[in-house]
């Protein structure tokens, strides 16, 4: 099996639909260009039928993106698919992403329909989208809670209808990693034509398991992952691009590759956060402000002896300028001496000991000690 994982970024669709995260057309184009530089394979540019502005943005992105596939979302409806096809016309590599609910709760309470009718509508939608573009992705919404034999039947039917990718979203972030692994394995064992399509993971983070479930899906055979920058998205968000990219990069032993250039991760995280006005939590993996910051005395001492004592990635490799040693009352003499040396102060051991006692008093009071505070201490 091919071990190259396709990175499908949905920051501009599933991420951007979060209240307060809306971007204007120019901002979306800027993000799309940076996503292309980052090396994503597919950019989901929006949901063209949803508003004239979104339609125009998808079209504008389709005009400027040259390497990545540009994708537009639709429901399994004629007017949606027509709008997506129109917006994607300028794209060099267009993809229509159409689909419908697959769990009984969605079939009954959202569509007031039956499993049989859902399969019929799914086949129709894929065939209709295929009349416009070759590359059609089908999403089985809420696949995470769908009846598994029915999901296998639906997957088989949409692949037969021409779907090139089948997306099996855990829309509600419900599954545990071993359950995701089991479900994808089951589909590989029960869907005869599954190797004619790429299986995609699209996981939400309601229980904080989106990334773990995505990796479990890859290990069971999925070869596309749907992710967003900083994990932004509905409710608790989507799977975070930077986490999946760096898990596959750090754990080369797993044997998977992506087209992502990690050096762009931190800059694009900042760009998206600033444009959307959505701060990144300080302890966010890979791109958070504290991801490469060391604050306790034991860690700082070990880090100063050898960075690999406490770092599994180099900050520069993900575009973070450098690691940081934060000075607080939990810091030890090693960190204090290191910072003083950077400021040009070389102290004898006995002087450092005396200064350290005063440093702790100041740190208890001020919480964080900055260079200005240190200069004040040295006098
Ligand atoms: O979470 C989800 O199920 C989705 C689909 C529309 C792909 O975002
Ligand atoms: Zn989603």
UniProtKB/TrEMBL annotation:
Top-rank EC class of the record's enzyme: transferase
InterPro entries: 2-IPM_HCS-like, AIPM/Hcit_synth_CS, Aldolase_TIM, LeuA/HCS_post-cat, PYR_CT
Highest taxon of the lineage: Bacteria
Pathway(s) annotated for this protein in UniProt: Amino-acid biosynthesis; L-leucine biosynthesis; L-leucine from 3-methyl-2-oxobutanoate: step 1/4
Residues annotated as domain Pyruvate carboxyltransferase: 5-266
Keywords recorded for this protein, A-Z: Acyltransferase, Amino-acid biosynthesis, Branched-chain amino acid biosynthesis, Leucine biosynthesis, Manganese, Transferase
MF-aspect GO terms: 2-isopropylmalate synthase activity
EC number, as in UniProt: 2.3.3.13
Family: Belongs to the alpha-IPM synthase/homocitrate synthase family. LeuA type 1 subfamily.
Name of the protein described by the UniProt record: 2-isopropylmalate synthase
UniProt source species: Aquirufa ecclesiirivi
